[in-house]
Give the backbone structure.
Amino acid sequence: MAECDNLREKITQYTPGSTQKKSTHGYQRVTLQLFGFMGHGKSSLINSCVCVGRDEDYQNLAGAGPAYGTVTIRRNEYELTKTLVIIDNRGFSQPTSEPILEVCGQLSSLRDIGEVKWDNILLTETLKQFPAKYSNRPADYIVPVLVYSAKVELIKDYVRFMEGLVTHIFSVTGIPPIAVVTNCTAGNKNEIERQLGDLGVMHRHFLENYTENDHQRSEERDKKILDFLNTCIDEAERGIKMSQNQDPQARFVTQAAEQIKQEADILREENKNLTTDNTKLTTESTKLTTEHTKLSTENTKLSTEVTKLSTEITKLSTEITKLSTEVTKLSTENNSLREQLVNSGKCTLS
Ligand SMILES: Nc1nc2c(ncn2[C@@H]2O[C@H](COP(=O)(O)OP(=O)(O)OP(=O)(O)O)[C@@H](O)[C@H]2O)c(=O)[nH]1
Ligand SMILES: [Mg+2]
């Protein structure tokens, strides 16, 4: 118990930069920014950190869902202490580049607390936030925290996505994300541990969250949560130390410039692809128009031929009618002549 108490004490007493000699860093809070796929246990991790960090009864403060699926769609802050804050997030649904850059925007203080959207590159939002945050930057040192459930196998597509995620986060914040693997008693723990290590994720915490159905506190589980929070504090201190010769305002500008560059690069690439598609479609369209003109000329020719033929047919059919009337007439005349001959006895019927 003493070990948990000591760890908790370190958390409750913590203020940013408290381990540094210099106190000119300008950060007033450390915020742990969670992110990860939907249903992997982000909100449950917040509930666990709040009850263990404050040593209170479990409550579903962050609105953890009853089962897997999208529940949280907003970023909300939860105070562990006045100087240590944890922020929930919307879960990723697709392993694409949009959510990666959105997370980087959040980590660069270029997004407000509130509703999160993943489906577009929000360069206009970044450009809107930049001047506002430049003159009124939140004095937060942000630590990226990746939440992954051991229940879900890290398949190829996810690994590629995670590579992009970790690389971008590193280039924006200067630190790799801290991983929390939830549901650690399910799935292939060793394989996920190896894969995260290969991705350059140095800190990997495997734990079982406290949940609605399972919140009987135990020292062992408490300690894992407290260890994770202490790693976050240590990483924040390491990051603050690394950036101590850099003015936080200058760091914000560097991060914002990197964010704007990355978002603009993707939009430029999308634009290039659209232009290529557009050129292809125009070529196809020209081809189709030429084909159409050809077919339409052929069609006019054929239609003239058909009209000619049909006039011929009408003529022929009139001729045939005439001829058949003649034939009928001749056959009637023939019959009457034969009758006359028979009647006159000049001829007998054969
Ligand atoms: N057994 C077990 N269940 C967990 C754990 N973490 C979360 N769960 C369960 O998984 C489900 C989803 O958990 P949430 O915390 O809502 O997941 P989330 O990442 O916040 O989900 P979104 O808000 O939809 O992105 C809930 O039913 C939790 O009870 C864990 O470590 N172990
Ligand atoms: Mg949630």
